[in-house]
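Student: Send me a single protein entry containing the residue sequence and its fold in token form, directly below this note:

Tutor:
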Amino acid sequence: MSDADRASFNRRSLLRAGTFTGLAIAVSAISRGASGQASAPLKIGIIGSGHIGSTLGSLWVKAGHPVMFSSRHPEELASLVQGLGDLAKSGTVAEAIAFGDVVFIAVPYGAYPQIGKDYGSQLSGKVVLDAGNAVAARDGEITTEAKEEGIGLTSAKYLPGARIVRAFNSMSYRFFVSEANRAGDRMAIPLAGDDKDALNVASTLVHDAGFDPVVIGPLARAKDFAQGAPLYNQQLTAAEMRQRAETIK
């Protein structure tokens, strides 16, 4: 489907949806996304507009989703936003959370306790795609906590009430740049979460970014594709990843 056809499809989908907005649109679009058709637009707020945040946000904008990139200094995102066109905008973290039907977090993991403290009430009830990795040299003591308790469950502790799906943390952003919408079998992206509808929304956004979603299991299984784990840094097809995941249950 061409970009022009995709945009037309998305506009028609919104008109048909009538009063259904936000997550209701996302869930109703899952079957279309899985079959290779465009999903209806979702507003995405991005916390952290570095390599991963800007890369995934750009892919979602190109797929027809409105995206707000955020930073402590939103004015520094002007060139990124201008280069992406009308569907992209910039704002503060609070503005991005309020804007998004879905929130994508891509910041150093050591910032999670502060994010929870400052924005936990705003994130509660939101679908949150969590791409952070705990790196000892950068993030300090929380790295030990994430290893002992599991990184998915640690995220849930600091972001209580958020409908968390671990996603896009399992490899360098360079692979998201080079492998999105590749010819042949797509590259698989592992997901873990406890909320079925949130997993459906995340799966749609993985698909729309140009990859195949593979749900590994509940949030506790996010440890299986954390840094150093068997599914980390694996550029596999969906079938290969499912097979590998079965061996480490």
Q: What stands out?
A: Residues 41-247 form a domain with the Rossmann fold fold (CATH 3.40.50.720). The chain has one domain: 41-247. The longest helix spans residues 3-17.
